[in-house]
Every structure is written in C-alpha cells, then in structure tokens.
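Hey team,

Filing this mostly as a record. A colleague (T.K.) asked me to run one chain through the structure pipeline before their review meeting, and I want the input and output archived in the tracker in case anyone asks later how it was produced. No errors, nothing strange. Just documentation.

Input sequence:
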Amino acid sequence: MPVIDLFAGPGGLGEGFSALEHDRICFDVGLSVEKDAAAHRTLLLRSFFRQLRDDGQRCLYYKYLKNELTREALFDACPDAATQARSRCLHLELGARTTKRVYADMNRLVAGAKQWALVGGPPCQAYSVVGRSRLAKMARTAFEENEKHVLYREYLRILALYKPPVFVMENVKGLLSATYGGNSTFERIISDLSSPTVAMRESMKHRTPQTRRGGDYTILPLVQPSTAKLRPEDYLIAAEDFGVPQKRHRVILLGVRSDLVVPSDLSLRPSDAPTVGDVLADLPPLRSQLSKEKDDAAAWAQAIRRVMQDFRPEDLDAAILETMTGALGCLRSSAGSGGRWVAKTNPAALPSTALTEWIIDPAMDFVVNHETRKHIPADLLRYLFVASYALVKPASPKLHQFPPELLPNHQNVAETLRNRHGFFNDRFRVQVEHQPATTVTCHICKDGHYFIHHDPAQCRSWTVREAARVQTFPDNYFFEGTRTDQYRQVGNAVPPYLALQIADVVASVLSAQ
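Output structure:
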C-alpha cells in the first residue's frame, strides 16, 4: 500500500512504515517530500537502498559507505534502483509554487487506490517552547501572518483534496500549549484535521466560518486514553514507554476517515525502554578532537591531564574526584577520533532485544557517521566531571552542583545559580548510562554539551551514530551532508522503531475494512 511522506526529514516515519511485516499489509513509501538538501540526499540514498534486490548490489552499497565507491558510481551500477529512488524523493518545499509537481506524483501513486496512508510532521519551530520564546520579540501580527509557521495547512490541503483512508501527523509537545490568533493552536488543528474541506473553505478570504457537523475524519490518540473524554495530553506519546531508549515526548495524531471501521483496541503496546548503555555498548570507543591546537591522541590526553592538574576543588565529593582521577589512567593514548566509517573492534555485545535486532546489520563489521567533535580543554574537564558525577550519583549535575572552577564564563551563569532553573541550568548534560536518554533534538547540531558521553575516559560528546542509535535508526542508515547537517537530521526525525509500531496500528485499521 502506498505511503506519502510529507515534511519527511531524513525519513524516520517512512523507515518504520516501509519495514513493517504485517500478516496482511505491507507499505511502500512511494513519495517523500523534503526541502532540506542534505536530508533529501539521505532520503534518496535510503530509498535507493530499499530497492536493492540481491547481496551483490548491497555489497556495492557497503562499499559506498566505506568511501570505496562514489555515489554516482553506486547509482550507475544499480540503474533500476536509482531510477526508482529518484522518482520517489522530491527535493522541494510544499507551497503554492510546488503543488502541481506534488499533486502529479500523488495522482500517479494513489489514483484509484482504496487503501493508502499520508504521514508527516509539519515544521514545528513555532510550536516548540524554545521556538516560541525566540519568536516572542517578533510583532505578533507579523508572526501570525507568516505562513511558514502554519505549514500544517499544506498538509491539510492534501487531506481535503485526496481524502486518504488514514493519516499520521507528528509534532512537538509545545503544540498542546501554543496559541495562534489568541486561540488554542491544538484545538484549531484538531478541528481543521477533522473537517479539512470546510477548514480550507474558511481559510479563503471573505469566508465566514461554518458550523462543523460530523466531519471527514476521527482524530484518535495512539495510547489508551485515561478518561472517556479525550484530553489534549492523551495525544502525547512518551517514546520510552514503547521501547525507545529516549525520553522523547511528541504529539502524534492518527486520523481515520469517518466512513471506515475503527477497531476497538487501537493503541500502541507498551514495552520497556533500553538504556543508553544498552544501545551504545558495542560502538568503537573514541576520543574527542582538540579545538584550536595540535590534535592527536597524545596531545588530547596531555591536554586533559594538564587541565586536571590545575583543578583544585574545595568541596567536591571525594568519590567524584576519585572517579575523575581514575579516568585519567584509562585515557586511550592511541584512540582515534572516528570518521565516515570505523571498524568494529569493541568485543562488547548488545543485549539481544527486538530493538537491537532492528538496529544491527550482521553484514556490517563497521559503523558509519561515527566521528567526534572538537572541544576546548576547559570543556574536556567539564565533560570529565559530569561523566564522573553520573557514575557516582547517578544523575547529570545541574550548574549549581558544579565546582566554581568549572562554571562557564557566561552572562547567564549568575542568574541561573540564583534561580536554579531554566535551560542554562542543564548547560552541560551527561547522558546517564543506565537510563534512557533525554530528548535528542536538532540543537545537537549546535554543540554537544547536552549529549555528553557517559564514559569519562572518552571525555567527549556524542557522535552522529550514537545519536542515531538512541533515535533507533538502523546502523546501515547513512546520513548525508556535513556533520552539522547529519546531527540536524537525526535530531529532527521521528524514531523509526516507534514509527514501525505506529505503522502496525495503521495496518490494523486498514486490514479491518
């Protein structure tokens, strides 16, 4: 059954749908639309990978991952797969100028199709708590008239025109409390999605809003509501409740066309979340790179020992200081900083779970997108401290729990120490080994301070692959673009393993008809 993926990012939702093995239904991501060039390249490569039909072709794909074959040579060697991928992945921004192209492809895919699904997550910066605080200085009317902040209407327009049997829309938790034009954004979106045809008429100039009766769609939550009457928070999915090693909370709406039968038990099935340590254990250990000075393994180890030598805390917990000192003896003077690909040398094995079977590709004796960032020595000492703190407590220290010598020279520090709350209080956050991670966001592309590795002897922030593991992307999922592009793609994505479970719910709806 065709799946249309709008605002696709690197393809997290599409990956889950395409991988579903249902007893009656399988999905085929026939069209993905994404405006970001690097994310589109990732989408295109993944769509290409799905079209490969034999081990010989997959072997060529692995050669590309190891940079032994160019992308052009790979696509030339598998022309059918390349043609299919190019026809399925559009690089454009949804809007008035591009609708003809999108509609032409949709007509080709779903004309006459009785069963198909529309999925996607409109850009959500305006709905996020951080995004709204940054936009607060903007003139409110200018913000509300800027259609880039209401791109969900492009999604709505396609619902009104094509009326898919089922749709899935994902957005940030901040959507539940956002307002637009003085009214609840969430309630307005629920109303619009329930009756998209009427909503589009109302959006035209000089139209008077109409009373909505019945509706084209029933908007359902994916978790069992706690009360008979649905509340906004019932649409919030906590990913860690469904086997994802990350405390990621997102609004996910399931729309079922009103003429369809809705199965009585329609919800995701809870499962335990693995921990950070569970999903990162077998990845090759790395060192960070040094910023603004000579960089090699020996210089890196020397830089950490130098800043540690000058560290004279007065009131630091003795166990934490002992852990920091012990980590100095474990610094790997021969450790590499990774790269596009790194051979697997770590004998540690991941626990055998459904998630690890999903992530691991037995044909790969290497990992990709596994390269560290550059850090200044002062931050290396902070990383050493927070990772050691987490081993002792176990928790990530807040800024007021830092030794004074390690406080960053930033204007927000004094206010944060007075109030002990706010974003800056978590400025340096270690991801605790025996817990699920905190939410992987696109901010990871800015710096690594919120995603510090739990091993103090590695003294670094996460690589793209480590973030991708926590986001449940399979190891053979390669992210294109610069490293900043790659981090942004991973942070913006829907966890594919969660998407797989959502696809199973959608399949249950379609198979019930």
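Quick notes for T.K.: The CA atoms of residues 30 and 108 lie 10 Å apart. Residues 206-213 have pLDDT under 50 and may be disordered.
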